[in-house]
Design goal:
817 residues, alpha/beta, Glycerol-3-phosphate (1)-acyltransferase, 4 domains, six-stranded mixed beta sheet, 33 helices
C-alpha cells in the first residue's frame, strides 16, 4: 500500500465509521463458504475504492477475519491483502487506468509453484451501497445509485445517503494452489481468473438488485400486445357484445388492479421500520439453509419462493429475511383483500401484485394475470406466492391450491430463458397474532375483512413474540422435474403454447405435493411448539417443571440422534434454557407449591396451543405411532411395530405431508426404536419391546409420546367405525356422519383440537383410504367396507384409549337408532 493510500485510509476511517453500517453476508463464512481463517487470505473486490476497503475492514473485524488494509507476507515477500478488478472512474477522464491485477496474480501463481506448502485463499467480496435496480429512464435519483465503478465525487454522495445500507457479500474461497496446478501458463491462468471473477460479480449484482425496472408504459404495451391477451380481448368483445376498445379498457383495468409498482426506496425504509419492529417483538429470527438461494442466484436461476402461510406477518418476515441474506426481494402474490387504502399502495410499491381469490370463467382476467406472471419470469424477477392459497387456521399445512404452480409450469413451457427453481420455505412462530381469530373462524365465526383498524390494532399488540423461524427447503428445479415426469414437455412449445397439455394436471398435482412435503421437511422445532405438544399430551394438561424439562430434553436428544430430516432444525440450547425462554413468553400459567412449579395452559387457552403443536406434529407421527402401540399392547415385538407402520404410514403421509417413501419410513422407524432403547424411552426383554419402568425418569416422556398422536388415531377410528356400521355409504354422507360423531366425542372428552372434526381433515383421510385401496367403490360411487378395511380398523382401535372406544361404539349405536 502506497504512502498516499495509507494517508487516505487514515483520514477516511473515522467518517466511514460514523456513516457506514456494514451488513455481512453470510455471517458464518467458515461453514457456508469454506473460508479457513488459518490460511492466508487475499480479498478480491470489484472496484478500487477506499470506502469499500474500509467497509470491508469493519466487516472482517466483526467476523474475525484478517484485515484487508494490512499487508500480506507470503514466502518472505509483502503483497497487498486486497486486490481490485477495476479502478474507479476518473472525474475528468473517460477511461480508468488498469489495476495491474493480472500481473499480481501471475506473480502469486509463480510463487505457489516455487513454494509447494503455500495455499493462498482468494475470497471474492461484492460490496454494494443500497440495492437499487437500474431504471429504463435515468433521473436525478441515479446520482446516489451504486454502479460498478463510480467516480470519487459520486461515491461521496453514495456513502452519505446509502452508508447505512452497505452490504458486504462474501463468496466461496478460491484456492490459489488449485489454480496454480492447472495446465497453462501463470499469465493465462491469471487472465482466466480475472475474467471469471468479472462474470461472478455481475451475477452477484443482479442477484442483489434484480433486473431493470419495468416502466409502466412498457408493462402495458407488453401485456396488451401479447397474443393471448389480444385474443382474450377479441373474445371478450364478441361474447359480451361490447366494442373492442371497451374490452381493451377492461384489460387495462385488470393490469392496473394486478400489477406491482416496485420501489427500492420503500424497501430500504421498510427495512429500517421492520428492523425496529422485529427487535421489539422477537427475541431473534432464526434462518436456515439460506446458502441454497444464494447458490441458485449465483447460477442464474429464476427463483420462485413458495412458503407455507401462517400469518399476515409472513409477507414482511420472509421479504425482510431475503433482503438481509443478500438477495433481491421478490414480487409477491397477495390476495386482493389486502388492496385497501393506504396499505394497498404501500404493499404494491413493496413489490406486491394482487390476485382475486377466484377468476374461473373470466378468461380476460386469466389471460392478463397469466401474461403478467410470465413477464415477471422472463424479465428475471424472483416471485413469491403461497401454495396453500390462504393462511392455515389449524397450524397444519393446508392441501395446496395448484393454480399458481400450473401457471408457473405453463410460463416455462412457453419459454423462460433461465432455469426455474421452486424454493419451498417453512415459516414458524412461537406466537401468531391471529391465532384467536383463526379458532373463532373454525368454530363458525365469519372471517373479519382486512382494514386499517385491524392493522393498527395488531401493531398495538405486537410484543414478546419469542422467535421467528425461516428455513429454506430443498429447491425443486422445474426443468429437471419435468424431464423426469414428462420427457417430451418441450414439444408443447411447437404446438399452441396457450393450450393446456394433457399431462399438466397430474404433473402439477405431483409438484404441489412435493412442495408441501419439502416445506414440512424443513420444519423448525421450537420451545413453544414442543411445550404445547407436551402439555396437550398430558392427561390433565398440567406438568411439573421437572417433568416438562425432562420431556423437552428427551425429545431434543431423540431428534438429534435420529433427525427427522437433514433440513429440519433443532434448538441449539439446553432444555433448561429452552423452557426458561418459553415461559418468558407469558403464555402459560405457572404456579408453585411445596414440591415445585406446576405449568399449564392459561385459563381457556389450551385450544390455542394446538396451533403451535400442529406446526411440528408431523415430526412426531412415527415416534408417536411406535410409542402408542407399545403402551397400548403393554409391550410388543419390533416386527409387529414395523408391520403397523407399513399399514398406517400411507395414511399419515398424505395427511401430514411426510416426505419419506414407505421403505424409508420403515428404515427410519427401525432407527427410532434403536435410539429409543438407547435413550431409555423403551426397554427390551426376551426379544420384546416394552415401555420404560414407571420409576424411570424417561417414563413420563415416553407416556407423553404415546399420547401425542391420539387425536389422529381417534379421528381414524371415527371414520372407520362409521364405515363398519353402514357397510355401504356415500362419501358426502360418510363425511357428514363422521363429523357429527367427532363433534360429540370432542364435547364428551373436552378435546382441544378444532381440526378433530374439521371437514377438510376428515375428507383428506377418506381420500387417502380410497387411494390406498383400503375401501372398495360401488357402481354408484359409494364407499364399500372391505376385509382390508376391517383389518385396518382393528389396528387403529387397538391404539385408541379404551374409554374412547367404548364411547365411540355407544355414539355410533345411538346414531343408528
Amino acid at each position: 500500500m502506497t504512502w498516499m493510500r495509507k494517508a487516505l485510509v487514515s483520514v477516511f476511517q473515522y467518517p466511514v465509521k460514523w456513516l457506514v453500517k456494514a451488513h455481512s453476508i453470510p455471517v458464518n463464512v467458515e461453514s457456508e463458504l469454506g473460508i479457513d481463517r488459518t490460511k492466508p487470505i487475499v480479498y478480491l473486490l470489484m472496484t478500487n475504492s477506499i470506502t469499500d476497503q474500509l467497509a470491508l475492514r469493519m466487516s472482517t473485524q466483526s467476523l474475525g477475519l484478517p484485515s484487508p488494509t494490512e499487508p500480506l507476507t507470503l514466502a518472505g515477500r509483502e503483497y497487498p491483502s486486497t486486490l481490485f478488478l477495476r479502478n474507479s472512474k476518473p472525474l475528468m477522464r473517460s477511461k480508468a487506468k488498469d489495476t495491474g491485477i493480472e500481473e499480481v496474480f501471475t506473480d502469486l501463481f509463480h510463487l505457489h509453484r516455487d513454494n509447494l506448502d503455500l495455499d493462498l485463499q482468494v475470497v471474492p467480496v461484492f460490496i454494494t451501497w443500497g440495492r437499487a435496480p437500474s431504471t429504463g429512464n435515468p433521473g436525478l435519483s441515479d446520482l446516489i445509485t451504486d454502479n460498478a465503478t463510480p467516480s470519487w465525487l459520486r461515491k461521496l454522495f453514495i456513502v452519505l445517503f446509502l452508508g447505512r445500507d452497505n452490504f458486504i457479500n462474501y463468496s466461496k474461497a478460491v484456492s490459489a494452489r488449485v489454480m496454480a496446478n492447472q495446465h497453462g501458463s501463470d499469465q493465462r491462468i491469471a487472465h482466466k481468473l480475472v475474467r471469471v471473477a468479472s462474470t461472478h460479480f455481475q451475477r452477484k449484482r443482479k442477484g442483489m438488485t434484480g433486473p431493470t425496472l419495468l416502466e409502466r408504459q412498457e408493462l402495458n404495451n407488453s401485456l396488451l400486445g401479447s397474443d393471448s391477451v389480444r385474443k382474450a380481448i377479441s373474445d371478450e368483445s364478441k361474447n359480451k357484445k361490447i366494442s373492442h376498445e371497451e374490452a381493451k379498457q377492461r384489460a387495462q383495468g385488470y393490469i392496473t388492479e394486478i400489477a406491482g409498482d416496485y420501489r427500492e426506496g420503500l424497501i430500504r425504509v421498510g427495512d429500517r421500520v421492520l428492523g425496529r419492529i422485529w427487535n421489539k417483538i422477537y427475541n431473534g429470527i432464526s434462518v436456515g439453509h439460506a446458502d441454497r438461494i444464494r447458490e441458485l442466484a449465483a447460477n442464474g436461476h429464476e427463483i420462485v419462493y413458495v412458503p407455507c402461510h401462517r400469518s399476515h406477518m409472513d409477507y414482511l418476515l420472509l421479504t425482510y429475511v431475503i433482503y438481509h441474506e443478500g438477495m433481491v426481494t421478490p414480487h409477491i402474490a397477495a390476495g386482493i383483500n389486502l388492496n385497501f387504502w393506504p396499505f394497498g399502495k404501500i404493499f404494491r410499491r413493496a413489490g406486491a401484485f394482487f390476485l382475486r381469490r377466484s377468476f374461473a370463467g373470466n378468461k380476460l382476467y386469466t389471460a392478463v394475470f397469466r401474461e403478467y406472471l410470465e413477464l415477471l419470469f422472463n424479465k428475471g424477477y424472483s416471485v413469491k406466492y403461497y401454495p396453500e392459497g390462504g393462511r392455515s387456521r389449524t397450524g397444519r399445512l393446508i392441501p395446496p391450491k395448484t393454480g399458481m404452480l400450473a401457471m408457473t409450469i405453463q410460463a416455462m413451457v412457453k419459454g423462460v430463458n433461465r432455469p426455474v427453481s421452486i424454493v419451498p420455505v417453512y415459516i414458524g412462530y412461537e406466537n401468531v397474532m391471529e391465532v384467536k381469530s383463526y379458532l373463532n373462524e373454525l368454530k363458525g365465526s365469519k372471517k373479519q375483512k382486512e382494514s386499517n383498524w385491524q392493522i393498527f390494532s395488531a401493531i398495538k399488540k405486537l410484543k414478546n413474540y419469542g422467535h421467528g423461524y425461516v428455513n429454506f427447503g430443498e429447491p425443486i428445479q422445474l426443468n429437471q422435474f419435468l424431464e423426469n415426469k414428462v420427457p417430451d414437455w418441450r414439444d408443447c412449445r411447437e404446438d399452441d403454447a396457450d393450450k393446456k397439455p394433457t399431462w399438466l394436471t397430474p404433473a402439477v398435482n405431483e409438484l404441489a405435493n412435493n412442495v408441501m412435503t419439502n416445506i414440512n421437511t424443513a420444519a423448525a422445532l421450537n420451545g413453544m411448539a414442543l411445550t404445547s405438544l407436551c402439555l396437550l399430551s398430558s392427561k390433565t394438561q398440567t406438568m411439573s417443571e421437572r417433568e416438562l424439562e425432562q420431556a423437552l430434553q428427551d425429545f431434543m436428544h431423540l431428534f438429534n440422534e435420529v433427525p427427522y430430516s437433514a433440513d429440519a432444525t433443532i434448538p441449539d440450547v439446553s432444555a433448561r434454557t429452552l423452557l426458561d425462554q418459553t415461559l418468558q413468553l407469558n403464555r402459560f400459567d405457572v404456579q408453585e407449591d411445596d414440591f415445585g412449579k406446576l405449568i399449564s395452559p392459561q385459563p381457556k387457552s389450551a385450544v390455542y396451543l394446538t396451533y403451535y403443536r400442529n406446526n411440528i406434529l408431523h415430526l412426531f407421527a412415527l415416534p408417536g405411532l411406535v410409542m402408542a402401540s407399545v403402551f397400548a399392547n403393554k409391550g410388543t415385538t419390533k416386527d409387529a411395530l414395523l408391520r403397523l407402520v407399513a399399514a398406517l404410514y400411507p395414511l399419515l403421509q398424505r395427511e401430514l405431508f411426510l416426505y419419506m417413501t414407505q421403505d424409508e419410513a420403515l428404515a427410519y422407524t427401525d432407527k427410532l426404536i434403536t435410539a429409543m432403547l438407547d435413550k431409555g424411552l423403551l426397554r427390551t426383554l426376551d426379544g420384546n419391546v416394552y415401555p420404560p419402568q414407571t420409576q424411570s425418569k424417561q417414563f413420563h416422556s415416553a407416556w407423553l409420546l404415546s399420547r401425542c398422536m391420539q387425536e389422529t388415531f381417534q379421528r381414524y377410528a371415527v371414520v372407520l367405525t362409521m364405515l363398519d356400521r353402514e357397510k355401504v355409504i356415500s362419501r358426502s354422507k360418510l363425511e357428514k356422519a363422521s363429523r357429527k360423531v367427532a363433534e360429540r366425542l370432542s364435547a364428551l372428552y373436552g378435546l382441544s383440537s378444532p381440526e378433530f372434526y374439521d371437514k377438510n381433515v376428515l375428507s383428506s383421510f377418506i381420500t387417502a383410504l380410497k387411494e390406498n385401496h383400503w375401501i372398495d367403490t360401488a357402481e354408484d360411487g359409494s364407499m364399500k367396507y372391505s376385509e382390508e378395511c376391517e383389518a385396518l380398523r382393528e389396528d387403529v382401535m387397538a391404539l385408541v384409549w379404551p374409554e374412547m372406544t367404548q364411547h365411540l361404539e355407544n355414539v355410533v349405536l345411538s346414531h343408528e337408532h
